[in-house]
Structures are given as C-alpha cells and as structure tokens.
Write a structure and sequence with these properties.
By secondary structure, this protein is an alpha/beta fold. The protein has helices at 18-30, 42-51, 69-77, 107-118; strands at residues 10-14, 34-39, 56-60, 62-63, 66-67, 82-86, 100-102. Strands 2-1-3-6-7 form a five-stranded parallel β-sheet, sandwiched between helices. Strands 4-5 form a two-stranded antiparallel ribbon. A hairpin with a 2-residue loop joins strand 4 (62-63) and strand 5 (66-67).
Length: 121
C-alpha cells in the first residue's frame, strides 16, 4: 500500500468482471486504499457487507444477472457510503441518493467519487 489520497480507507469492492475488478483493485491500492474483497457474486457481496470493516463500498449493479440491490440495502442500513457502477443505465429510485458511475467510467472520476464518499476529497 502506498500513501495517497485514500490512505488507510477500507473499500468494499463488489465486481463480477475479473479484469475490471483487478484494475479497480490496482487503482484503489495505488491511491492507498485497503480493498475488502473483491466479491464477484451476490452471495459473497452480502457476506462481506454483513461482516463490515470498511468505510466505503463500490457495487457493480449487475452481478452475472443478479442485481446488487440487496447489498445496497444492507449497506444503507449500516450507513456505509456507497457508489453504484453500472453499464445498464439507471438504478431503482430507492437508490437515487447514491452516486452512480456509468460504465465505462474514467478512473480519475472513480477515485474522485470514492474520495468524496470517504471524506478525503
């Protein structure tokens, strides 16, 4: 881990595409974050979300055909700031308060949103 704007921030990463997940892990770690996961399935995402131990969450909205809404609800109950990443357009209205990154997104935009949610901007 290196010193960076996200130094020491624990980030739950839920992403089912291996290459995207690996890239986001690298970016987060380069910025100093500690990555929890990544989780590639709804079940693994729910398990990690229930375990806690992170400051911010990044959710891929479509996990191999399963919606991440149950994870988002659990994180909302725990008051964990969450960003939703999706390549499928809008998310359900109940999640309108969450920032949404439309895939493909710029990595600088991703880091900025995670920084803002962690209070590090």
């Amino acid at each position: 881990m290196t010193a960076g704007p996200l130094s020491g921030v624990a980030v739950l990463l839920v992403e089912d595409e291996f290459l995207v997940s690996a890239m986001l892990v690298d970016v987060l770690e380069d910025e100093g974050a500690v990555v929890v996961g990544p989780a590639a399935t709804l079940a693994d995402g729910l398990r990690l979300a229930a375990e806690g131990g992170f400051d911010v969450a990044v959710l891929d909205w479509n996990l191999d055909g399963a919606c991440s809404a149950p994870i988002a609800r659990l994180l909302r109950t725990a008051a964990v700031p969450t960003v939703i990443a999706t390549g499928y357009g809008e998310v359900e209205p109940e999640f309108a308060a969450h920032p949404v990154l439309s895939k493909p997104f710029e990595l600088a935009q991703f880091v900025a949103v995670v920084s803002r949610l962690s209070g590090r901007e």
